[in-house]
Specification:
The complex is a heterodimer of chains A (145) and B (644).
Chain A: H1 2-15, H2 32-50, E1 52-65, E2 68-82, H3 87-101, E3 105-107, E4 114-119, E5 122-129, E6 134-140, E7 143-144
Antiparallel strand pairs in A: 1-2, 2-6, 2-7, 3-4, 4-5, 5-6
Chain B: H1 23-45, H2 54-120, H3 128-168, H4 173-196, H5 209-218, H6 220-227, H7 237-246, H8 256-272, H9 276-285, H10 287-290, H11 298-332, H12 345-363, E1 367-372, E2 378-383, E3 392-397, H13 407-419, E4 425-431, H14 447-468, E5 478-484, H15 486-496, E6 503-507, E7 530-534, H16 541-544, E8 548-549, E9 553-554, E10 566-567, H17 584-587, H18 594-603, E11 607-609, E12 614-616, E13 631-634, E14 640-642
Parallel strand pairs in B: 3-4, 3-5, 5-6, 6-7, 7-10
Antiparallel strand pairs in B: 1-2, 2-4, 8-9, 11-14, 12-13
Classes of the chains: A alpha+beta (145), B alpha/beta (644).
């Protein structure tokens, strides 16, 4: 019986799940449209740094927790570009250094074809597929309530 | 006086020249068929180059249409012979096994015959009666053996003849055209029958699948009529074959599984034996039969389910109208405090979400490979393509509160994984049936997972078949089943039913599945599955993992501690703060967070970071009652490991 009570108590705690965690202060006054516009611009900018012929592969604003309207809204945005050989190396060195200098937190994710950048509630990740001459830059502007 | 007749030695089993491992032939044919089908699709979808005009453009368009039609014939013929090869391989594999049994049987009979011949060469009179009886028994056994050898030989000859006939039926251009035309006529005959019987209006006669679908979108009443159609048993051609796949059948005890597998193969052979245009039309004409039928190629399941979505959209719009009427009434019904004014807002929101989903499916040709709008709904969607670039296929299984109205969020996450993998990864969002609606009242109970687990396991064989029959087959594409929250318990129960997976990933998972406490509880089929798990510190689900009471409460072992499972880091959110606490339960999916990145790497067979120990603040000198330490970071760095 004790386990049942524990289970119910814990489940009751889970009910309070509201999705996105505490965001940066600047998120409080932002609309999802504004946050999304900023994120799109930053993702487009990084994509342009890496390659050419951008194609938007995903651009959707949805609930932070699927089906939970009260959980806030978040952007999922992805752009594909064509890249030249050596782009992954450039991403992991000069591009990463440039972003770090601009105040972005950089994660090089060793052993992968990817680098991630974060600033405030905004996140960007770039993955380079050298063998097929492409890269995908994607991210989110964070969860806006 | 009786005479002891010594039976002749049993004859040898004839040789089996065919190698049961000759599946490379059909695999090569399948690849060729898949590639040709892709070219045919391109030819169908493309017209003249955009900057061409006038006669040249018309001629180019005509040439491409003719080219596409000829390719359709090639696709149908290649699929026909590939299916024949696969049936032959299956037959040879069975015959090879039977031959080994017959060889052993012959050896035993030969030993008996030798021994008997030695003893019968010289015997006393009082032994004669027993020897005669023994001779009769031995002769009977040898005769039965000879009968089995003859039956085996007959089966071999039949398998060879069937294969030869399949090739001969299409071994000239004229015969290939005739074969494709006969198949096509079979499907067109179905259309004609449905029109003649008044099921379909005259104006759709002669439409192809694309035209018919466009018509149905504008005429949901006709779509509804099609949903009520079933293929007629005893019909000739593809309709009859389709009817045979869903007919009740008697089987031996335990034979239902074999029959289901055979029907999965037969369904694949039926649709791959048709031209893409005919297969699409057949699926559209019998949507309720084809939409979830195991073995039907996913693109045709999607064609069928589009019809179901048309009907569901029509129903949902009517439902929304009704809800809004009642909502409006509630505002004006004069109840003193307006207590019922908001009663229907949730239902209205859900109906609007479902309508948005259905409209999106139809507007964007989304690949819905399972669809049932009844109750909370069942739906599965393929994101991306399973094609020549595909190295991995992931299946995402969501958890508590997911239903048709919230499925779009699950689909968005799968789309994100696909977009970030640029063609290497295809995803399937799978909500195969009813999931718990409520975390307290429903989620502790295992019956949802009991129901869904076997369905997911069965679906996994469809996924594997789809991969093996696609251009991704040479890539040895790997599958990952990702179960989030209650979905983890579903994946676990699917393993109990033989889930065909290369990798399993438990994400904030409720458990390994009711009654699964160790790998010993799983069938041998799961021995090769690589398992990963991630649970963020402070996610309350971590406190119920490993809890199980009675027959229907709890979800088996804690995935993070299950033998052989590699626990992964959930790390930080994208903003650099640890992804912890109650909200981490869903925050793990935040784009580019450490947890999301680890999931993406598992799905793609890349490099992941293993579990990091949380680091907490030091306790104050005099902690107040109820003080709990806050996590300040990570004590250990985790290891970087390659996914196998």
């Amino acid at each position: 019986m004790r386990k049942l009570i524990i289970t119910a108590a814990i489940a009751a705690g889970l009910m309070s799940t509201t999705g996105c965690g505490p965001q940066e202060d600047d998120m409080k006054d932002k609309t999802i449209e504004a946050a999304a516009a900023e994120a799109r611009a930053d993702i487009d900018a990084l994509a342009a740094l890496l390659g050419s012929s951008p194609e938007v592969r995903q651009d959707v604003i949805s609930d932070c927790v699927p089906g939970d309207d009260a959980s806030g809204k978040t952007l999922d945005y992805a752009v594909r570009v064509q890249v030249e050989p050596g782009t992954l190396g450039r991403l992991k060195t000069e591009v990463a250094e440039q972003y770090e200098a601009d105040g972005w937190q950089v994660k090089l994710d060793p052993g992968t074809n990817s680098v991630r950048f974060a600033k405030g509630s905004e996140t960007i990740g770039a993955r380079v597929f050298e063998d097929r001459g492409s890269a995908v830059v994607s991210g989110s502007g964070g969860c806006v309530k | 006086m009786a005479t002891v007749v010594i039976p002749a030695p049993p004859p040898a089993v004839p040789p089996l020249d065919a190698d049961p491992k000759a599946s490379s032939v059909s695999s090569a044919l399948r690849r060729a068929g898949s590639t040709t089908s892709s070219v045919a699709d391109w030819a169908h979808d493309s017209g003249a180059p955009a900057d061409w005009s006038g006669d040249a453009a018309e001629a180019a368009s005509h040439a491409r249409t003719s080219f596409a039609a000829e390719l359709d014939v090639v696709v149908a013929v290649v699929a026909h012979v590939a299916a024949a090869c696969e049936r032959y391989e299956a037959a040879i594999s069975g015959l090879d096994s039977q031959r080994e049994t017959l060889i052993d049987e012959r050896a035993a009979l030969a030993d008996r015959q030798n021994d008997f011949a030695r003893r019968a060469a010289s015997y006393e009179e009082d032994e004669e009666a027993a020897l005669v009886s023994e001779a009769n028994t031995l002769q009977g056994d040898i005769d039965a053996y000879v009968g089995r050898v003859e039956s085996w030989q007959t089966s071999l000859t039949r398998a060879e003849d069937t294969l030869i006939a399949a090739f001969q039926s299409v071994d000239s251009p004229a015969e290939a055209d005739q074969f494709a035309a006969a198949q096509s006529q079979g499907v067109q005959a179905v259309m004609d029958r449905l029109v003649d019987s008044g099921t379909l209006p005259e104006e759709v006669r002669g439409m192809d699948a694309t035209q018919l679908r466009e018509y149905l979108v504008d005429h949901p009443d006709v779509a509804r009529t099609l949903m009520e159609q079933s293929p007629m048993p005893g019909a000739t051609g593809p309709e009859g074959l389709l009817a045979g796949l869903v007919q009740p059948a008697f089987t031996t005890p335990g034979g239902a599984g074999e029959l289901h597998e055979q029907r999965r193969d037969d369904a694949r052979a039926l649709f791959e034996g048709l031209s893409p245009a005919d297969a699409s039309l057949l699926a559209t004409l019998f949507p309720s039969t084809v939409g979830g039928l195991s073995g039907v190629p996913f693109e045709y399941r999607a064609d069928a389910n589009a019809v179901g979505v048309v009907v569901a959209l029509d129903d949902e719009r009517a439902n929304l109208d009704d809800l809004q009427d009642r909502h409006d009434h509630n505002q004006e019904d004069g109840d003193l405090f307006g207590l019922n004014n908001d009663d229907l807002e949730g239902d209205i929101g859900d109906a609007e979400d479902r309508i948005a989903l259905y409209e999106s499916i139809l507007d964007n040709d989304r690949q819905i490979i399972l669809f049932d709008p009844s109750g909370d709904g069942a739906i599965a969607e393929l994101h991306g393509d399973i094609g020549a670039d595909t190295q991995n296929v992931g299946v995402s299984v969501p958890g508590t509160t997911t239903d048709m109205s919230s499925f779009q969020g699950v689909a968005n996450k799968s789309d994100a994984f696909v977009a970030d993998s640029d063609g290497d990864l295809a995803m399937i969002s799978w909500m195969g049936g009813d999931l718990p609606d409520d975390i307290v009242q429903d989620a502790p109970f295992a019956n949802y997972a009991h129901d869904l687990g076997p369905s997911l396991a069965d679906f996994s064989h469809d996924v594997r078949q789809e991969i093996n029959h696609s251009a991704a087959a040479p890539n040895d594409a790997q599958t990952t089943y990702l179960g989030h929250s209650y979905g983890g318990a579903v994946v676990g129960r699917a393993e109990l039913s033989g889930l065909d997976a290369d990798r399993v990933l438990h994400v904030e998972s409720a458990g390994m599945g009711h009654d699964i406490q160790s790998p010993d509880d799983l069938p041998d089929s799961q021995d090769g599955v690589d398992r990963y798990s991630m649970t963020a510190p402070g996610d309350i689900i971590g406190d119920i993992q490993g809890t199980q009471v009675g027959d229907n409460i709890g979800h088996g072992a804690d995935p993070d501690e299950f033998e052989g499972t590699i626990r992964l880091d959930t790390g930080n959110k994208a903003d650099g703060t640890p992804n912890i606490g109650v909200e981490s339960h869903s925050d793990v999916f935040l784009r580019q967070s450490d947890a999301y990145f680890n999931m993406l790497e598992v799905l793609n067979g890349g490099t992941v970071t293993t579990y990091r120990e949380p680091e907490y603040e030091d306790p104050p000198l005099y902690p107040h009652p109820g003080w709990t330490p806050e996590q300040t970071g990570w004590k250990t760095p985790g290891d970087r490991i390659d996914i196998e």
